Amino acid sequence: MKTLAELFEHTLKDVYYAENALTKALPKVAGAVRNAKLKAAVEAHLEETKEQIETLKKVFKTIEVKPEGVKCDATDGLIKEAEGLMEEAEGVALDAGLIGACQAVEHYEISRYGSLREWAKVLGNEKAHVLLTEILDQEKAANAKLTTLAITTINSK
Ligand code: FE
Ligand code: FE
Ligand code: FE
Ligand code: ZN
For residue 131, how far is its CA from the centre of ligand 4 (angstroms)? Predict the structure, then answer.
């Protein structure tokens, strides 16, 4: 790939893969955490993630490309780390660890959507810019919610 348009398409497929992988991973995380508020937060973000997949389909439409994923090694790695924690950690360490693991995913997503929405703007694709900003704001809010939960409840336990 040489052009920004090609890079945009490739990275869009990367996040599409990531969101689809997360719809399979988040139910496992929700099932493993012990704190009820944390479980509810993970379940809420799972629903949001399903909506994000629909929003991404609209972004694919703006560039007339069929929605499909390309393997995102970063997300696969982050999910693997979370799965490792679920095997190794217990009790309060499990909850604190899984909040951190979820936030690692949110930070990855924030960086990707931040790049994508700015590339969309430069490419003159205002519709994609707006749709990707919508998702970026959801990822930032999800991350902030997890930070609040960690600081106010989970870590002190
Ligand atoms: Fe997401
Ligand atoms: Fe990736
Ligand atoms: Fe690591
Ligand atoms: Zn997310």
Answer: 15
Q: How many CB atoms lie within 10 A of CB 150?
A: 18
The arithmetic mean of pLDDT across residues 124-131, rounded, is: 98
Tell me which residue of 80, 84, 86, 81 sits closest to 33, measured CA to CA: 86
pTM for the structure as a whole: 0.95
**Could you tell me which of 128, 117, 28, 25 has the C-alpha nearest to residue 79?**
25
Instruction: Calculate how far, in angstroms, residue 113's C-alpha sits from the geometric centre of ligand 4.
Output: 10
Q: Is the pLDDT assigned to residue 51 strictly greater than 80?
A: yes
CB count within 10 Å of CB 156 equals 9
Å from CA of 93 to ligand 1 middle:
25
How far does Cα 99 stand from its chain's mean position? 13
Q: Which is it for the CA torsion 37, 87, 78, 71, positive or negative?
A: negative
State in Å: Cα 16 to ligand 2 middle.
9
| CATH number (domain holding residue 110) | 1.20.1260.10
Domain residues for the domain of 75 are 4-154
